[in-house]
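dumping this here before i forget
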Amino acid sequence: MSHRPTHDPSVLDGVPFFEEVDADERRRILELSTPREVAPGDLLVDQGDTAVECFLVLEGRLAVYVRGEYVASVGAGSMVGEMALVDHRPRTASVVAETAGRLLAFRAKEFRQLLDEMPRASERILAELQARLDRNRDA
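structure:
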């Protein structure tokens, strides 16, 4: 694992949600987030719980489960837990660390600030949410 300091805006290189944001906006993203290290087996999101934060994966892999069934694995550049923050509903899935990893955690208030302050990032996040909703509806 590479260990660039989390305050280094380059940790966001290659993250699709933030491709079009400038260095100042990247620094702001880091100010709004809290670095989090995870170990294999760590539970990040528990289905049915009230959402208080979401996570951006910088390194590592996370497994997503719905009603105890494995549905997907996500890695660097993925965001998890944001859907429940946006639509103010209980968590629709559980998320567990498959590997050790580094994440950025956004509490609900900071996530809303990010969406308000960065329209381009907000558009990408909301477009990804819509795509997930469409996939879930078709499944």
